[in-house]
Amino acid sequence: MSIDNSSFKTNLSVLIALLILTVITVLVAQVDFGIFNAFFAMLIAGIKGALVLMYFMHLKYDEKIYSLIFGISVFFVFVLYFFSKLDIITRIIQTSVL
Amino acid sequence: MKDNKNLAHHFNSYKDQIRAEKIGMWLFLATEILMFGGLFVGYTIYHAEYTKVFKVGAEFLNWKKGAINTVVLLFSSWTMVMSIYYAQKDQIKKCQMMLGTTLVCGFLFMFIKYLEYSHKFHEGIFPGIYFSYTGSAFVEDLPLYFSFYYLMTGLHASHVFIGMALIFWMLIKTYKKQINSSHYMPLEYVGLFWHLVDLIWIFLFPLLYLVE
User: Fold this and answer.
1) What is the number of domains present in chain B?
2) Of A28, A73, B103, B201, whose CB is crowded by the most CB atoms within 10 A?
3) Does residue A43 belong to the interface with chain B, where contact is any CB pair within 8 Å?
4) ipTM of the complex
């Protein structure tokens, strides 16, 4: 059987943390940090996502293979982004309006 | 454990079976991340190229509705976790209550989404070539933003819908007494899917509604 580590208290604290972070997301969006706007928004979303993955989806307590599978998929999304962006800034920008 | 009636004959033990099931589930979730990931990458790149258009587009959205939907989904994720928590303790009544609440949250999310969509359709904001909005806030290439908006929220909403169907199925299973402390794994996998849907919304909300 899988391990029962999800206690009532932990789950409730994670929910409260997620709700507080949602309020912070909205508040941060009202403040202008210039080029860091997107960075802060994604940082908070990242923290929220990590909380959901670790506690609600039990990755913290489970075998590492599941985290690895998930991590690899996220990594390849970044690979896609990296090479697409690289292509745009080195090639397309000089020849088109894009 | 060998005599467990939930053990398929091709597995040595229930532990092996759970491990195989879980790996399968996480592999499926990985493909989901890759599918949404493509859209996220497309959105991010076009956002960088058409920053002004995306800012105007985001102003059409009601961030309050988006924030309410975020809270609804986060809360439903918690009730989903709690339903598993009670199933593990053989408190099936409470488990059903939590599953029911999760389902209600799903309906609430879809209802708010419906309000948002119908408001936009009313103004002529349709996806792709059907875009017919000509109001004062129109800027060139505005349909681009809304193509992303409809594709991403639409794909997400279809996931919410499938998740709700799965939760309903689990609810039936609890009434048939097929979920208990020695066999609650189906609940766990539906939970994983539901949390993934929540996870994607966590990123969609700031990206679509709070664009600078």
Assistant:
1) 1
2) B201
3) no
4) 0.88
